[in-house]
Design goal:
By secondary structure, this protein is of the alpha/beta class. It contains 24 helices and 16 strands. The protein has helices at about 10-15, 20-35, 50-60, 75-80, 110-115, 145, 150-160, 170-175, 190-195, 200, 230, 240-245, 255-265, 270-275, 280-295, 310-330, 345-350, 355-360, 365-380, 400-410, 420-425, 430-440, 450-460, 480-485, and strands at about 65-70, 90-95, 125, 130-135, 150, 170, 180-185, 205-210, 210-215, 220-225, 245-250, 275-280, 335, 410-415, 465-470, 475-480. A 5-stranded parallel beta sheet has the order 4-7-10-1-11, covered by helices on one side. It is elongated, with a radius of gyration of 30 Å.
Length: about 475
């Protein structure tokens, strides 16, 4: 029987519908997905062998769950993905404030309605998309917000005494009966508010202004927390932790490939931008490596973490930098340049917490350091290692390139120069092409100029060339010549 034809309690009973508690519902649907081999948390990458198996075990165990991890580790996304494990529709008593199950009503309103109308009691069908509630723990959250309070207006309108439990206005948690309820940043919730959750998690009863209501609420709680909160702002009170069945630790992507997959999935790009700007594979890798460097940097507070959102917004900024340049020059197709990475600095500076040394250095300068560190890390994977100390007169793979700068006195690379001028400038440096032909013979043609610029920036990082920023671009010079000019 289709749900469109079931509109009363009697019809529901005739259909053979069997009620399930939400934790059993999640467990049942998860078992079916696992047995069918279908991905359970599709679109969440990097957790396949760590977080997701633990989360699946918690759901199979019918546990309330705490996802513990630094910012930008997909905690809320995981919680929202649990909606997909709910039945598509469930029946509720029509007009019920707390989604009463017609076969197992718990509120006074639903019980009275069923007692009065019997099998003619009207029912509605609730879609799983409406069975997700989320609350950010903030200092202004009250017990009344979460649990409920006495409503004097309701008492006046219904001409009820304050001793009558019908004057109660239910809070967010009772209204989320038979739903997934997420409290984000749980340690930020005041301790007295956390205490109010004890009975709901364990015994299922609530108290509102002296009314002790036996409401066996049917809920799946998911909490998220940041370890930083345990020391800086608050903590989860011990009895509440004791009532949370599973605590699952999340983490950042462990490889560049996973980080790239996440960034490309989450970045908000339109078709025009994607068609206009070509991004070399090395540029994508460098962008992700910046986040990896940031998580190890001495300038950045690693307890605070570096969100995956940093790479996503940096990628959007990188493409927008190239897009803006192309629009100004009237080009119909362009390629990301390494010098375009100047455009990602605003995406970095707002997303990292600096320690004292970082504050002294300055956020923008720290961002430049991170880019330099990423280039320094990647370069040996593409070209021969540059030694710090070399014997006098000894020829290295980079001798001809360094000699070119000594003889030609360097060049300037403007931020907004046309693609044609950009290519002509780099083509004049013949040793660059020789290096690429020798050590990267399989390099795609469209990646050539980015690789040329990559070599120059790497030589700067290894102290073989100098690079100076001026208002309109960068100036590359021989190290020794640059030193003399400064004198």
């Amino acid at each position: 029987m289709k749900i469109e034809t079931i509109n009363t309690l009697g019809e529901l009973k005739q259909s053979g519908y069997i009620s399930k508690r939400i934790k059993d519902e999640l467990r049942h649907n998860l078992r079916l997905k696992i047995q069918s081999g279908k991905p359970v948390f599709e679109g969440v990458h990097g957790f396949e062998n760590s977080v997701i198996p633990e989360l699946e075990r918690a759901i199979l165990s019918r546990h309330n769950i705490n996802l513990l991890g630094l910012r930008g580790q997909a905690k809320t996304r995981l919680a929202r993905k649990m909606i997909e494990l709910l039945d598509e529709y469930i029946p509720v008593v029509a007009g019920s404030e707390i989604n009463d199950d017609p076969l197992n009503p718990i509120s006074r309103l639903a019980k009275d309605l069923i007692a009065e109308k019997g099998d003619a009691t009207p029912i509605q069908w609730l879609h799983r998309s409406e069975r997700f509630f989320e609350k950010l723990a903030t200092p202004d959250v009250t017990v009344a917000d979460l649990i409920g309070d006495v409503d004097p207006i309701k008492a006046a309108n219904m001409k009820l005494s304050y001793a009558d439990d019908r004057v109660i206005h239910f809070g967010m948690i009772p209204r989320a009966n038979r739903c997934i309820f997420v409290i984000n940043e749980l340690p930020d919730l005041q301790a007295r508010i956390q205490v109010a959750l004890f009975n709901i998690l364990q015994e299922g009863d609530i108290q509102i202004r002296g009314f002790k209501l036996r409401l066996p609420l049917d809920m799946q709680f998911v909490f998220t927390a940041n370890p930083e909160d345990y020391t800086n702002r608050g903590s989860i009170v011990t009895p509440l932790k004791d009532r949370i069945g599973s605590q699952i630790l999340t983490h950042y992507p462990e490889t560049i490939a996973i980080a790239r997959t996440i960034t490309e999935q989450e970045a908000k790009l339109d078709v025009f931008q994607s068609d206009l700007v070509y991004v070399p594979s090395l540029a994508k890798d460098l962008l992700e490596q910046i986040s990896f460097e940031a998580r190890e940097s001495e300038y950045i507070d690693n307890k605070s973490g570096v969100s995956a959102r940093m790479s996503i917004t940096a990628y959007e900024n990188l493409l927008s930098t190239a897009e803006r340049r192309a629009l100004k020059s009237g080009t119909s197709r362009t390629t990301v340049r390494l010098s375009d990475f100047i455009g990602i600095i605003p995406a970095i500076t707002g997303k990292v917490e600096l320690v004292y040394e970082g504050e002294q250095e300055g956020a923008a300068q720290v961002a430049q350091h991170l880019l330099g560190d990423a280039i320094h890390t990647f370069f040996p994977a593409y070209f021969p290692k540059i030694e710090k100390l070399e014997k006098s007169g000894e020829k290295t793979p980079y001798s001809d390139l360094i000699d070119w700068f000594f003889n030609e006195n360097g060049f300037e690379l403007l931020d907004e120069c046309s693609d044609e001028d950009y290519r002509n400038i780099l083509d004049e440096i013949v040793p660059l092409q020789i290096l690429i032909k020798k050590y990267q013979p399989q390099l795609p043609k469209e990646d050539t100029y980015f690789m040329k610029e990559f070599i120059l920036w790497a030589l700067v990082e290894y102290d073989k060339l100098s690079k100076d920023r001026f208002e309109e671009g960068y100036q590359f010079k021989d190290k020794f010549g640059s030193y003399l000019s400064k004198l």
